[in-house]
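Let's do one together. I've listed all components of the complex below, 459 residues spread over two lines.
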Amino acid sequence: MVPAEGDRMRKPGDIEDTVVSNGDDSRELQRDRTAPRRQFLKCMAWAGAGTLFLMKGGVLQAKALDALGGDASARDASFSFVQVSDSHIGFSKDPNPDPVATLQQAIGKINAQQRSPDFIIHTGDLTHLSKPEQFDTLAEVMKGAKAKQTLYVPGEHDVIGDNGKEFFRRFGTGNAGWYSYDYGGAHFVALVNVLNLQAGGLGRLGADQLAWLKQDLAGLSASMPIVVFAHMPLWNLYQQWGWGTDDSAQAMDYLKRFGSVTVLNGHIHQIQQKVEGNITFHTARSTAYPQPSPGVGPGPGPMKDLAGNSLASYLGVRSVQHVRGRHDLAITEEVLG
Amino acid sequence: MLAATMAVVVCSTSHAGTPASRSEIANTAHASMVQAPAMQKTAITIRNFAFEPATLSVSAGSKVVWINRDDEPHLVVSAGGQFPASPALDTDDSYATVFSKPGTYTYFCSIHPHMVGTIIVK
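Okay, and this is what the predicted structure of the assembly comes out as:
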């Protein structure tokens, strides 16, 4: 994992230096040093049963995968990170009375990878009810992960009663809650779409955040791979169940000029994917419990009646590997059992 | 912890009554609008990410009780700040408030904002 000459390697530990709350010249200098070569994220996903999804030219392909990390592209990766989502610490009902244990299993899967991820992204709903002891537990379990750093965005379950004050005090980055950073030649943007929600609406970014996003992206070369993450889906996945973000179209308008945009979300506790132009949307599994497919059954919420001991097959983590100089960039799904 | 807190609220303020029986809930589940006699406590069930009934008409002075029957937490928040917001209601938690003034009160779940309900106070 040696950065190519001319690239400026940013480590998660450097994130405080690169958090941008307003446009500033120093950030632009950093960007100018970043190699403007076209790079793509290649996403592959495998489940416990061994399914590999390869994202090539915006088309998702599936093939059998022999073993975790067995794909050649895993060895070629310039860096990798893992997405963890919807841990719901504090949930205690069917089908999972112990989401701490399943989160620990997820961390175990991460630690078992041949190569430790550079960092972990948690896309929200750390807790079920925003309670201090639930945040404590989550933080303690995450400490067990072999990664240099974990980056967070809040889910709606993390901002109950205090508009996220406790969440941001513990896990926040930047002043406004949203932030961005450069790493390994890619630009990462963390968005918050679970605050100030409006009656009858969906997730919400809000005018201030959108203005910041526009400014944040303004100086970037269109060839820079962009990874955006937020809790609720940033596309209208299933409005009837609230699975979407009211003003995400505006954000996507700012992102559409880039050659490679990967959007990672949680919230719906299952994998859904969509390609729109150069923007690929992914939602992640939960580490706690699955929710039904969009529109299946009377509503969202935990799937309580799972056959046998199949819970683990619904839970999982996602690994993303950035492969330089390839026409694909990859995401890996791994189930817990 | 939350359940205990709710119980204290119920006892100390008498704003929340006993949960409606399942038969009461069943009777109101399919009605889009329910007329409630004055001063009568009226229950709204939260189930499958929806308020049942979605629109409830009551007389001024009525106490309205929300009961969450989902395995997801929900909140009851006035869209216009016209009545106090509930805390997070976990499964089987309830919240109650008295509507003393006539008017139309739109409310929603602040973490699942597509969940919207209306109280019409006459």
